[in-house]
Amino acid sequence: MSKAWEIEQFLTVGDGNLLIDGVSAVALAREYGTPLFVFSEARIKHNIARLKRAAEVVDCRLKVCYAAKANSLMAILRVVREAGGELEVNSGGELWKALKAGFTGDQLIFNGTSKEVWEIEAAIEAGVYAIQVDSLYELALIEATARRLNRRARVSLRLVPEIETGTHSGLQTALLTSKFGMMPDEALGAFHEYKDSEFLALDGVHLHIGSQNPEAEPYTDALRTLFENLEKIYRETGLRLSHLNLGGGFPVNYLRDNSHEIEFPQAQREMFAAGFEPSEAIRRAWEFVRETARRSNAENLLADLTLLIEPGRSVIADAGVCLTTVRNHKERPLMSGEWRGFGEEEKRRRGEEETEASAAGNPKSEIRNPKSQMASDVWLLTDAGFNILLSMETYKWYYHLISAERAGAEHHTPYKLAGPLCDGGDVYFDIEGEGRLPDYRLLPEGVAPGEVLALLNCGAYSIAQMFQYNGRFLPAVVLVRESGAVELIRRRDAFEDLINNDLW
Ligand SMILES: Cc1ncc(COP(=O)(O)O)c(C=O)c1O
Question: How far apart are CA 128 and CA 292, in angstroms?
Fold first, then answer.
């Protein structure tokens, strides 16, 4: 029977091993060492093609601007470009990387809340499609910079749409309480003030309703908000915007295995297991807006419009797998004597096992851990910590874990998992005890040091955020090319990398 996490022609089981695009994950781990990130070129291209399908459901141009912050390794940017993706960048550094990776100014949008003058200059000089403006202060700064350079900066104003989604509180970006953007009234004032500016082309409005949004409906609210603003701006200032930017946030199914063996609070489960089609959400949103425009006799404002989206994780998350080796293990007495972290299905299964065991005269604890007379947890300590998967600590993010060596085996044995860092928070469960992550991970029986495990869906916001805490070498990254060849796209740190920037 195929596993819930398998993805045809991408993540599969062969000879019991995890295969990534047909390449043995264990062989890669042996060759390049772990932790190791493995990316699939075919999957990245597949994901971009999936997002580009939205062009078929809107009657306007569509720009798919991959959010580089999710992962801006040069090889990844190049694959995105080859796949026909464009780019959203967030700093002068990302802009520099994008240009180096071969993107042209017209393929770039420049975002960010604290832009410095040198970054604004670089964006104007690169001729980016739009600088996404975060405040009125920043708009004045861009105008002054463009004036000094005697250039015209193309801008889009980021709005606070006050749309809440079912995502993690830390990923809500469209509320009054979030730090991003300006109020629609402020934006309208700016359109009045700068509409005749020689140095600013006021081209669009932008918003981003947050990341990993579990439902499609907020995208309709978001596009309606953008269109209402476009219409109001036109009616009040006569300015006709050329683009609307709907942001990113399309979800990835991180849970994969939604069998309820793993226990999550319902809201967490819905967020991690989310998986609607972006083009379907956009189709519904577009139809709603077209109808609104028709009713207000403003359909002409949709003509010649360009719609932008800025997907990050939906391009790169499931294209990346993190391979890790178990380096240590230990047993600990169970604190509560209770199995926590399992769903009803698993509890029922365990209950049945216990009943059978009692009938056979075995004490319960021996069933829980056959090797020990007392109930205990088996801990596995891996070489992948939150220094390479930061979201696991900051957002209690769930990455599904399997054995790469025994991918085809039953995963029913519970273990407590932790990374290698000298930091109590470096664990794969919720150390704060708020139940945002399962307490246990299910793997095959008898996992011991040396076994290679795989954390799935690790491509987004991992490598982009990694750091050398505890003097740990940043990992190597390989790309499985469409041809099947494997290329090293980032070498593992060496000792010298730990002190490269130290001057003393
Ligand atoms: C403005 C903006 N656009 C796009 C994204 C990408 O979001 P996601 O990776 O969820 O698609 C983000 C991420 O937070 C963002 O802040």
Answer: 31
